[in-house]
Amino acid sequence: MKAFNLLSLLGVFAMALSSCSEDLSRSIESISFHQKVYDVKVGDTVRLGYGVSPSGISPRIMLESSNEGIASVVSERGLVRGVSRGNAVISVKGIYGGAVATNACEVRVSDVEATSITLAEHEKELNVGDEYTPSYVITPDNSSQRTVSVTSDNESVAMVEDGVVKAVSAGNANIVVAIAGTSLSDTCELNVSNVEVSDIVLSQTDVSIERGKTFALQASVLPENATFKMISWSSSDNSIATVNDGVIQANKIGNCVIYAKSIDGKVTAECNVKVIPVKVTAVTVEKFAKDLALGAQYEISYNVTPRDADDKRVTVSSDNQSVATVEDRYVIAKGIGEANITVTTLDGNFSASTTVKVRDITELMELDYAMGTKVDLTGAYFYKSFSIKNNSMNDVILEGVEIINNNTGNLVASEDGEDLRGVLSPDESRGITLTSRTGNIPSNLTVFWYFRFNGKAYAVSKRIN
Description:
Elements: H1 2-20, E1 30-33, E2 37-41, E3 45-47, E4 50-53, E5 60-65, E6 71-75, E7 79-82, E8 86-96, E9 99-110, E10 116-119, E11 123-127, E12 131-132, E13 136-139, E14 148-152, E15 158-161, E16 164-167, E17 171-179, E18 185-193, E19 199-202, E20 206-210, E21 214-216, E22 219-222, E23 231-235, E24 241-244, E25 247-250, E26 254-262, E27 268-276, E28 282-285, E29 292-293, E30 297-299, E31 302-305, E32 314-318, E33 324-327, E34 330-333, E35 337-345, E36 351-359, E37 365-376, E38 379-390, E39 396-405, E40 411-415, E41 422-424, E42 429-436, E43 445-453, E44 456-464
Parallel strand pairs: 2-9, 11-18, 20-27, 29-36
Antiparallel strand pairs: 1-4, 3-7, 5-8, 6-7, 8-9, 10-13, 12-16, 14-17, 15-16, 17-18, 19-22, 21-25, 23-26, 24-25, 26-27, 28-31, 30-34, 32-35, 33-34, 35-36, 37-38, 38-42, 39-40, 39-41, 39-43, 43-44
C-alpha cells in the first residue's frame, strides 16, 4: 500500500515537471486525426488516433462531441463511446507554446444487430380465460434492436393485446415473437382447453313452497372460471312445479325434484320441492245488520283469508244455545235474548265472532201513521195514511189490515186486496190511506195488521188518537 502511494506521488511530480518544462520557443502548428471517419457500435468505444506538428511537443488536448446523445467523449486521450445510432462530429483542440491548433473527424454510430430471439417456452397449455406474457431472450444482450411484436395466427383461439396473450376459446394457435425490422422470430405452439364444470351448488336442496307461490333458486357453478356456466333447468313433474331460469312455480300440492344440469350434461344438482297447501291467515264474519226474529233462521256470512286457501273449512258455534243454535251455517233463533256466534277455521284455528239479538217477530214490524191535506184537480181533501214495515231479516206473509173506530167499535176500513197481501220482504213497506173532502175521518182509531210467519198467524196494532 505504501509502495502504491509512492509511485502515485512520483507520477504527479513528473507531470508537474513536464508542464513547467514546456519549451516556449516552440509552438503547436497543427493537429490531425489519423482517420476522417470512425465507426463504432452502440455501447462500444473507439479510440480516435491523432498526431501533432511539430513532433516532440506535448500539447494540452481537448476533445468535444457535437452530440453527446450519439457519441460521448470518454477521455481526452481520444476514447469515444457510441450512445445511439447516428453521426456526430468530434472536435480536437491542441494548445502549446501559446498557439492553438484544431481539427475534426466524424464518428458514425450504428446499432448492435440482433442475431436471434428465443422464447422461454415453445409449447404451452392454457385454459379459456387465462392470460400470459411470452418471455424471450434477444442475443446479443447489448443489441439495440429490442422492439418486439407478439402475434397470433388464430385470434379466434388466442388474442394478443399489448403483448399479452389471452385464451378465448378451445383450440390451437401459434404465438410468434419477432424483432421489428428484422427477419428474426420464434414460435410457441399454444393449446387452449375449456374449463369444465366440476360442481353445481344450489342455494337450497330442500324447499317447501305454498301452492301458487314462487321461489328463486340460486345456482353457483364451480370452478368460477368454468368456460360454460349456463345451466339447464327442469322439473321431474311439471304438474306439481315448473322451473324457469331457477324460479320455481308451485302449481299443485305434491312433491317433485328440480334439476340444475351443466350444458354438457356431466354435472347435475338436485333440489327436493314440496308444494304445500295455501294456509289460512284470518277469518272475518259479517255482523248481523238486524235483530233475528224468534223462530227464524239466517245463513251466517264469513270470509276466509286468503281467498285461495286450500282448506276453508270452519265450525260455527253459539255461546247461548237457549237463544240461538247453529246447524251447518244457519243460525236458528230459539229464544228471546242475545248470543255470540263464533266462526273458527280448522286450518290455523283463526276465529271471529258476532252478536245476534233475538226478538219476537211482532217487535220487528214497524207501524207508522201520517195525516194531512192534499189538493187534486177537484179540490182539497183530507187524508190519513197507515203503513207497516218489515224490520226483520226474513220474509213475512201479509194478509190484510183493519181500521177500527175506538169510539164506536165500528170497522172504518178493511183491506185484503192484492196490494196488501203476499210476501213482505225485509225493509219493505206497505200501506193504506183514508181520504175525505169533508174532513170527517175519525180521529180515535186503532189499526190492525195481519201477517203470517213460519206458518203462524200474527197481528200487530197501533192506536191513533
